[in-house]
Design a protein that fits this description.
Structural class: mainly beta
Strand content: 35-45%
Mean pLDDT: 86
Oligomer: single chain
Distance between the termini: 80 Å
Radius of gyration: 26 Å
Low-confidence stretches: none
Largest sheet: 8 strands, mixed
Strand order of the largest sheet: 7-6-3-4-5-2-1-14
Order of helices and strands: HEEHEEEEEEEEEEEHEE
Length: 282
C-alpha cells in the first residue's frame, strides 16, 4: 500500500492557505508636522553676474502646487537682504526675478556686478530673512583644470562613435570633479552628469561614453573643478533621488555647509570649468 506524504503537497497547501487569508490591512501613520526650511542655491561663475535663488522647502507628500499666478509667490522667499563679500568689497544682491536664458535657470536675487576670478580670497555669503534670521556661507574659487582634448572614436564596422575626454590630474593633491556632457545644446538634459574624486586615478585621465553618437551630432563636454563640499552635496542629492521611491532605502539627508541662525539647506559654491564643443564627423 502506498503511504500518503503531505510534504509534497505543502507548496499547494501553502498557496491555498494564503489565498484564504486577508492580507490587506490599512495602516494609518501620523506624520509629524513639517516645518518649511529656507533653501539656497548660489553658484559663483567667474565673469558672470552674482545670482542666487532663495526658496522654501515643502513636505514630501504635499500636492504639487498649481501653475497659477501664486506659484512663484508660494515658492520663492522674497524681501530678504542678500549680499556677498569678497576681498573687502560687499556686493548687494537686489530682490528681482531674473531668468538666465543660457542656463535655463531662474533667480530672485542678483547683481549687475560680475564675479572676479580670484582663487586666493574667499567669498562670504550673508542673508538676513524678513523675520531676522540669518543664513551664512563661505566658498572659494578653484583653479581651472583644462581639458587636454576631446576625441571622437568610431567603432569598427559601425556607424556610431563614442566621445573620449582627456585631462591631467595633479597626483600631489586631492581633487574633486563634476563631469557633464550634453547633446545638441547646453540646456538639454545631460547625457552624463556625475561627481567623482581622483582617489582611484592619477596623471592622465580619460572620461568616455558608449558608442551611441551619429555623424553630425554636436557634443558639449565639460569638466568642473569643484571642492569637497560641493562634491558631497551632489552625492547626497543623488542618493536622495535614488531612494525616493524605495520604501526600504535608508533616509538620505542633504549635505549642507550653510550656517547662521536659520535652519537652511542648500549650496553656496564656485563654478570653475573647461568646456569643449565637438561635432561628430568621420
Amino acid at each position: 500500500m502506498k503511504q500518503f506524504s503531505i510534504i509534497k503537497y505543502l507548496p499547494v497547501l501553502s498557496i491555498l492557505f494564503l489565498a484564504a487569508c486577508d492580507l490587506e490591512q490599512e495602516v494609518e501613520i501620523e506624520l509629524p508636522e513639517y516645518d518649511s526650511r529656507p533653501v539656497v542655491e548660489c553658484y559663483l561663475e567667474p565673469d558672470a553676474p552674482f545670482q542666487l535663488l532663495l526658496t522654501k522647502s515643502s513636505p514630501y507628500f504635499e500636492a504639487f502646487p498649481s501653475l497659477d499666478d501664486d506659484f512663484l509667490s508660494n515658492l520663492l522667499l522674497q524681501e530678504a537682504e542678500v549680499s556677498i563679500k569678497h576681498n573687502g568689497i560687499t556686493y548687494p544682491l537686489e530682490n528681482e526675478l531674473r531668468f538666465d536664458f543660457f542656463t535655463g535657470k531662474l533667480y530672485n536675487y542678483s547683481s549687475t556686478a560680475t564675479v572676479p576670478y580670484d582663487t586666493l580670497n574667499p567669498f562670504e555669503l550673508m542673508i538676513t530673512l524678513p523675520e531676522g534670521e540669518t543664513i551664512t556661507g563661505s566658498t572659494q574659487l578653484l583653479p581651472q583644470i583644462p581639458i587636454d582634448s576631446v576625441v571622437v572614436e568610431v567603432a569598427e564596422s559601425d556607424t556610431l562613435a563614442r566621445i573620449l575626454t582627456y585631462f591631467n590630474d595633479n597626483p600631489n593633491q586631492e581633487n574633486y570633479y563634476r563631469r557633464m556632457l550634453n547633446l545638441s545644446s547646453l540646456d538639454s538634459i545631460p547625457e552624463q552628469d556625475f561627481a567623482f574624486t581622483d582617489r582611484v586615478f592619477e596623471g592622465n585621465v580619460v572620461l568616455g561614453t558608449n558608442f551611441e553618437y551619429e555623424r553630425g551630432d554636436t557634443i558639449y563636454s565639460a569638466l568642473f573643478h569643484i571642492d569637497k563640499n560641493y562634491h558631497d552635496f551632489l552625492q547626497s542629492i543623488e542618493a536622495a533621488v535614488a531612494g525616493n521611491g524605495n520604501p526600504f532605502a535608508q533616509p538620505s539627508p542633504t549635505a549642507n555647509t550653510l550656517g547662521g541662525t536659520a535652519d537652511a539647506i542648500g549650496i553656496f559654491t564656485g563654478l570653475v570649468y573647461d568646456r569643449r564643443m565637438v561635432i561628430v564627423d568621420f
